[in-house]
Structure formats: structure tokens, C-alpha cells
Amino acid sequence: MSTAAGVCFALSPSLSLGAGSKSPIRLGGPIFVKSDDPGVLAREHRRLGYSAAYCPDMATLADAKVLDEIKRAFAAENVLIAEVGAWKNLLDPDPVKRRENLDHVTQRCALADAVGALCCVDIAGSFNPASWYGPDPRNLSREFFDATVENCRHILDAVKPTRTHFTIEMMGWNLPDGPDAYMELIRAVDRKAFAVHLDVCNGINCPQRFYHNADFIHECFRKLGPFIISCHAKDLRWDIEMNLHFEEVVPGRGQVDYRAYLGELALLGRDVPLMLEHLKTAEEYDEGRLYIREVGDRMGLTFA
């Protein structure tokens, strides 16, 4: 999809691009302690070396007291609440489900604003009737793009967030499928609280991007940098078959260039969390966390 030239758009004050100074990286990920005590949860993040967190499961709009306790406990440990996941199909072919999903994501965005999370995140969705994120030829169509613009505007206009942003991720077979399509979406949505949740692995959808993923990472930050509010961390391995198959693996077991990824994050000059996801066990998260920290240490970067 093409991007119109000369379009002006405003940046949210919290999304101004850093002036080249390297900022500490806020690494985060799931924890495996079962507790309803926000203090226990916040301290466990710190024990693991995390300074960013997914919103705790017990957070709900119905209990302002719990939200206040979460905010105080995590702030006391200097752990940012990076995101509230929404994870519903905003373009479900069933109109009833689509409306229900839109309402759910709107409520999740409201929760993100209430708990002070940096963002609420979803994907644009899919027209695939069998899989909420699966492939469908219409997922790269103007119909898909226009419906996504409408959904994003609806959510933001309903919530009117003052502390959070609504974000969607790139997907390899759904729009936005790369930084240019994402920039067109940003311009079309035209809301200050619409931002980018960057998952570089989701955008690596062909051999060119896989072979030259450092170049792809640099391109994403060059074009989307002022809008990036949070990022996901995992890795990709090419499983050799008779057709293309990239498999998500623990950071360090694949070919994603984490020197490029961490270097670009540090140069943003502001708090943009890097959140581990989609791993299977606590041990895999330990492995991924230690690998990312080792790469950062070798580069002379610091972690918050």
C-alpha cells in the first residue's frame, strides 16, 4: 500500500524521538509466581532483573482499589507496566462476534489507561473464519485497511486515553505487514494516542527480510521510531522444508540480530520496554532473558 507524501500528523508528547542519547533498556516478561499481592509480583519482576511487566491478571476496571495498589507497588520497584493485551479478532467475519470483540478491546484499552500501562495491544485481526489471526486474501485489501482504521478510531474515541496508547502489531500476512503500511495506517487513523507496538519477528515474512533482518530492524526504527511505545522479544529459526517455515524460538536460538534490535531501542532515548513472549517454560524465559542481557552487556548497554 502506498503512503501519501506531504501528510502532516501530530505526535503525542510522550512519543517524541530521543536526541541520540542511549537510554537503559527496560526488559520484561511473564513471571511464574502465583499471587494476588501486587507487591509480591513487583518484587518478583525485580528479582528476575525485569523493569517492565505485563499487566497483572487481577487488574479490573471494577476494582479501583486494586488498580491503585498495582500502580503503587510496581512504581515502588521501578517496574513499568508495559501493556494490557486485548487479543481479539477485530475483523471477525461474524458481525455479532466482531462487535463483541470490539467492545472487549475497548474495555481493555480503558483498563490500560486506568492502570497506567504504556499501551493496550492487539493485532488488526483477520477475515479468516477459522483462525482469529490466520491468513485470508482479503487481509491485504483496502477493505481490511479501512475497517482497521475505523476500529482504531472507535476504540480511541470511546476511551479518550490520557495515560495509555492503543497499538496493533505487524503481521506477516495481515496489514500492517511492514513499516510503510504501518505509517499509512498511522496517518489514516490520525489520533495522537495511536502508537506502534513493534514485533520485528512478525514482520519477517520472506527470505529477504530473514537474511537481512538487521536491515529490516533498522528500517522499522528509522520509519516508525517516534511512534514505537513497546516491543516484543523472541527469535526466528528457519526450519528447512520444501516450503518456507519460520519457527518462533527462544532468543539466541535463531537468527534475529539482537545487536541491531537492542542498539536501536537504546537510541530511542526513552522508556520503550522489550517484552519476552511466546516461550513455553520458566526455563526458556530465563534463557532468553540471560541471552538478551549478555548481548546488551557486550555492547556496553545498560538495563533499567
Outline, from the CA principal axes? globular
Biggest sheet features: 8 strands, parallel
Strand order across the biggest sheet?
Answer: 1-10-7-6-5-4-3-2
Number of helices: 10
Give the low-pLDDT segments.
Answer: 1-20
Q: Taking Cα atoms only, what radius of gyration do you get, to the nearest Å? A: 19 Å
SSE string, helix = H, strand = E? Answer: EHEHEHEHEHEHHHEEEHEH
Q: Could you tell me the mean pLDDT?
A: 93
Keywords:
single chain; 304 residues; alpha/beta; eight-stranded parallel beta sheet; two-stranded antiparallel ribbon; disordered N terminus
Describe this entry's structure for a reader.
The chain is an alpha/beta fold and 304 residues long. It is 40% helix and 14% strand. The chain contains ten helices and ten strands. It has helices spanning 38-47, 64-76, 95-115, 142-159, 179-189, 200-203, 207-211, 213-224, 258-267, 282-299, and strands spanning 27-28, 52-54, 80-85, 119-123, 165-169, 194-198, 228-233, 235-238, 246-249, 274-276. The strands form two sheets. An eight-stranded parallel β-sheet has the order 1-10-7-6-5-4-3-2. Strands 8-9 form a two-stranded antiparallel sheet. A hairpin with a 7-residue loop joins β8 (235-238) and β9. α5 packs parallel to α8 and α9 (258-267) crosses α10 (282-299). The relative contact order is 0.16. The model is unreliable at 1-20 (pLDDT under 50).
